[in-house]
Automatic annotation (TrEMBL):
This is ABC transporter ATP-binding protein. Keywords: ATP-binding, Nucleotide-binding, Repeat, Transport. Residues 13-249, 266-509 form the ABC transporter domain. The keyword Nucleotide-binding applies. GO terms for molecular function: ATP binding. Pfam families: ABC_tran (PF00005). PANTHER family: CARBOHYDRATE TRANSPORT ATP-BINDING PROTEIN MG119-RELATED (PTHR43790), GALACTOFURANOSE TRANSPORTER ATP-BINDING PROTEIN YTFR (PTHR43790:SF9).
Length: 512
């Protein structure tokens, strides 16, 4: 928490009576938000509560139907993000918007290139400004590094520096810790503290209430599109904050009841996946997952998890062997693997999980187009798919509960709930769950955990990939760590700590 948590600081942001309607949905209704200069201000709420819409309005991506925005006391009207940037507002999105094949410097100045007469870009002036900002806020960014060579935490610092370079004095961060290790989260919080102490204002959205309580000066709770509470961290507990949000206690992955059998569901032997240049990105990986077992894989993003999952799903060429039950599926096409009973919750829901411009009931069919209730004989069963989509929407509390609305109209967390519901409804024998609760609120997180617990108790085998180390420890029966494409550690989830996992994930515990 910053040292400027006094009530005398002037208001940097004031939103009064903000209302935003979409067809069939009121995303925000009479929302009120006041953020003091030099404060770290958290916004929390369930998926679909209206947090992201509110921040898009503040950043000029959406225009409110009613209400007023005041920046540093002056009423403003934003018609685009360019207007918000000109007013000193910058936004760091949950999904980083960096070009991997460009340097840090090139990413930062893209669209704001300094000129030194004529059309020439003044790289020297840009490099000097980047260094000055990086040093001033302790961001530790090297201008000439390729972004593809940076870890997740470093990429996030580049995103922060990018908005600072454009003169932002008010920073909006959307789920800033979603993919960070514990050590990287501590570093981020230190950076936010430093920014606030220098007079900058930070607004951040998060579902992780312990983080909200540790780093923020003030918290606004939004429920079903309207403000329901404004509290100070010292006056509220995580449980009370959860009750403000959803009316229930803070969930936990819970105590595990061992349900692992002796029957192997999926066996991987000597699995190698190569990049386009021939470099092994998954290097000789072997493991078994038994019925009733959750095998958790921990690793910093970019160490082979994505390629491992895509290899098991038949989306990558491989060396080695993959067996599902009694079958060698090493060269089966993806659809055949799906039809055989492999469920798939992808890490990138937009790329591999949804058709954003299709209605929810059509998204229910994706990957399950050969199985009931989606088909009768060779034909799509529209009525069956629609009926089952209604059941998924009700069971998983997908909002809005309109099966004819496009998937793009749902918040990220509600999109995730739809995908989890679809995959669990297929009664898979084996499930790949890649970041199954990323971006969902605490109520939905608890529900997804309960569904996984119940399915596992009934014999489901699960490969769990997650950046949430507490989730990995809480759900897994077996824990492995992947680093540079290789399994480098096995840990007992009953005794492992997030810090031990983080150390293994970065290779800090390895001897040269």
């Amino acid at each position: 928490m910053t040292q400027q948590s006094n009530v005398s600081a002037p208001m940097a942001v004031e939103l009064e009576g903000i209302t935003k309607r979409f067809p069939g949905v009121v995303a925000n209704h009479d929302v009120r938000l006041s953020v003091r200069q030099g404060h770290v201000h958290a916004i929390v709420g369930e998926n679909g509560a209206g947090k992201s819409t509110l921040m898009k309005i503040l950043y000029g991506m959406q225009r409110p139907d009613e209400g007023e925005i005041r920046i540093n006391g002056a009423a403003v009207t934003f018609r685009s993000p360019a207007d918000a940037i000109a007013a000193g507002i910058g936004m760091v999105h949950q999904h980083f918007m960096l070009a991997d094949n460009l340097t840090v410097l090139e990413n930062i100045i893209l669209g704001s290139e300094p000129r030194s007469g004529g059309a020439a870009i003044d790289l020297g002036r840009a490099r000097e400004k980047i260094k000055r900002l990086s040093d001033a806020y302790g961001l530790g960014v090297e201008s000439d590094m390729l972004v593809e060579d940076l870890g997740v935490g470093a990429r996030q610092r580049v995103e922060i520096l990018k908005v600072l370079y454009r003169g932002a004095r008010i920073l909006i961060l959307d789920e800033p810790t979603a993919v960070l290790l514990p050590q990287e989260m501590d570093e981020l919080f230190a950076n936010l503290h430093r920014l606030a102490c220098e007079g900058l204002t930070v607004i951040f959205i998060s579902h992780k209430l312990d983080e909200v309580l540790s780093v923020s000066d003030a918290i606004t709770v939004i429920r079903r599109g309207t403000t329901v509470a404004n509290v100070r961290p010292k006056d509220v507990t995580a449980r009370e904050l959860a009750e403000h949000m959803i009316g229930s206690e803070l969930p936990s992955p819970g105590a595990r009841e061992r349900s692992v059998t002796d029957t192997v569901s999926l066996s991987v032997r000597g699995l190698t996946v190569r990049s386009a240049t021939g470099r092994p990105v998954v290097d000789g990986v072997s493991f078994d997952i038994r019925k009733g077992e959750v095998l958790g894989i921990a690793g910093v993003e970019g160490n082979g998890q994505t390629e491992l999952v895509e290899a098991i799903m038949g989306m990558r060429d491989i060396e080695g062997e993959i067996r599902f039950g009694d079958h060698d599926i090493s060269f089966w096409p993806t659809l055949r693997r799906r039809a055989a009973g492999i469920g798939y919750i992808p890490e990138d829901r937009h790329r591999h999980g949804l058709l954003l411009e299709a209605p929810l009931w059509e998204n229910r069919i994706l990957g399950h187009q050969t199985r009931r209730p989606n088909v009768k004989g060779p034909w799509i069963d529209r009525s069956g798919a629609r009926s089952d989509t209604r059941r998924i929407v009700d069971t998983y509390d997908v909002r809005p509960a309109d099966i004819d609305v496009e998937a793009a109209a749902l918040s990220g967390g509600n999109q995730q709930k739809l995908i989890v519901g679809r995959e669990m409804s297929g009664n898979p024998a084996f499930l790949i769950a890649a970041h199954p609760t990323r971006g969902v609120d605490i109520g939905a997180q608890a529900a997804i955990w309960d569904h996984l617990h119940a399915a596992r108790a009934n014999g489901l085998a699960v490969l769990l990939i997650s950046a949430d180390l507490d989730e990995l420890i809480g759900l897994s029966d077996t824990l492995k760590v992947i680093l540079r494409g290789r399994i480098v550690a096995d840990l007992d989830p009953r005794t492992a700590t997030p810090e031990q996992l983080g150390t293994a994930m970065t290779g800090a515990g390895q001897t040269p």
